[in-house]
Structures are given as C-alpha cells and as structure tokens.
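job 3f2a | input accepted
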Amino acid sequence: MTFTQLFCIAVSWIVGGFVHGVTSIGGGMIAMPVITFIASPREAILISCLTSFIIPVALAIIYRRHILWREVLFLSLGCLPGIQAGIALLTAVSGPALLFALGLMLIFFVAWQHLSRRVRPGLPYRPLYAFLAGTAGAFLTACTSLGGPVLAVYAAFRGWEKEKALASTNMFFNFLNLGIILGQWQAGLYSMSLMGAVAVSLPSAMLGVAISIPVVRRMPQQAFRKLLLGMILLSGLTLIVRSVM
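job 3f2a | predicted structure (245 res):
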C-alpha cells in the first residue's frame, strides 16, 4: 500500500478508536466502511478483524468479575461452525456482494439501536439459544467483521445488566477473534501488505481511544450518539449503492 493509503487507514482507525471510547460502539463500524474506499472489501474486513481484537481483551479484564461463564461457554462453542462458514463465504463471494452485506449490517445496527428500547427481556437461558447466537455472531464476524449487533440483540433479550453484557460479550469475542485470526491465517488470507496496514491500524486505534478519555466527560453523549448513528446509516447506504454500481 502507498503512504497515502496507510495514512488514510491510520486516520480512519484514530476516529474509530475515538468513537469506541466515547460511545462504546465498535470502532470498526466507522473505520471499516471508509477503508473499503482505499482497499478491497475483503482486505477492509481482514484489517478490521485484526485491529478490533485489542478492545475486547481490555474490557474483559476490566469486567472479569461479571462474566457469565456458563453462557460464554455455549456462545463460544457456536464459533466452531460459525467461523468456518464465515471464512468460506468470505473467500467465495465477490466484492459487490460483500459491500452489500456490509451495508445491510450497518443499517440493521442503526435500526436495532432505535428498537432496542422497546424490547422486553424475557428470553430464558437455554444452551441451544446461546449456541445459535454464538454461531450467528461468529459467522457474521468472520465474513463481515460486524457480528456485534447479533450479540447485542441476544444480550438485550436475555436482560443482562450492563456490566454482565460488557463482560460476557467481550469474553466471547476474545475466543471468537482468536479462532477467526487462526482460521483466516490457515486459509492464506493474510499478506505482507495487509500486515503493514494492521501495523498502522493498531496503534492508531489505541491513540483514538486515548484521545477519547478527556473528551468523554465534556461531550453531550446523547447528541453525539445520534450524530454517529446518522453517519453509520449513511455509510450503510453508501456501501449498498457502491455494490450495485
């Protein structure tokens, strides 16, 4: 990749890390759609998968006392079929199809953010439900890097408290990210050029999170969140338009 491309990727992840630090919305939802204008859709997804792993590690450590290990176990078992299916789809589908899928996922996330307040938690704990949610989350993460909304839906219907949701979903993503990285590496999807982009993305994402720390207390979070959701919706629509042009 050229210096200009790497610079744009770095800026995208600084913004993505900042957004995650302020709103807890995954930075990949901001950075990855921008990177599709610089790299191929498949490369953008792989960069996002490799860069996004560091935040779940930190959050799982911070909230480790609240992890629901029983559910995390069955969620993680769902990674076994989900990762393989997702990687198979990632290697098989075309660029336009990936762009279309990414756009749909972003639009779904925005819609879910508006509808989630009306959800009445009532889903009982069943190992099968956790396994299916884990499979769906692993599949979407492996092929689009956007599996977070599935786990958010599951957590909402289960009625998890904020700390339990943060701890358990991020612990799940630690297992998931490890499996995805190993699976993508075995599938031969990584290149030296991709590693160069990731080497720029990782410190950029951490810098963005660091910048967000002094801003969090001063910024009206609700107003910023509405603006951010509007940006994500616009990104989703743009990706869909690009996929059919």
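job 3f2a | The mean pLDDT is 85.
job 3f2a | closed
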